[in-house]
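Bug #77: duplicate submission created two jobs. Keeping one. Sequence:
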Amino acid sequence: MNTLHRSVALLVFTIIGLGGCAHEGSSVSDPHPVTVADLQAVLRDEWSRHVFWIRHVVMDNAKGDRRSRDFAEKAVAANARDMAKTLASFYGDATAGRFRTLLTKHDDMIQAYSDATVAGDKRRQGTAIATGASIANLLSQINPHLPKDTVRSLFATNIGHHVVQINKFQDKDYQGEDETWTAMEHHVYVIADTLTNAIAKQFPAKFGS
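Kept job's structure:
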């Protein structure tokens, strides 16, 4: 995360925290509310890091670079913690913990598909995708502005990008992987912006103009 994004993230975590968690309520008198643009910047950064570090995990796996993959896996776990902290500001620690668990399972699913691809085991590939936990159900439950079909479609596309990327690395099709990477980056911004807009609608009192 660059210096600007670190500063924005710290600002959001600190100031939104002053208003308490969602179950504690919020009021228009919350001091120094952040803007929707602040939240958008944080979520875009977090989701960009999500795909960035998972990309390194699967790339290192394809190359057999265990040391580099270990570092990337730790970064993936740290990113999941960061995303949970952002949601905790609105929904409380319990819901944020559920989200972190599901996101970790999502990450594990992708890594399992990568392992199966490297091993050339198509049966394990299918099993990895079939057993992936869905984040979409949780998000649609906690926010009425996130229709289940919408978030399911968003995360299905995200998983599809990961699958294509893993296969491109395995085939050493680096041009094809670069094209997939560009699509992934754009799509996670769509995910981040969708979440931003839904949270802003659900908690308007937490935001300034």
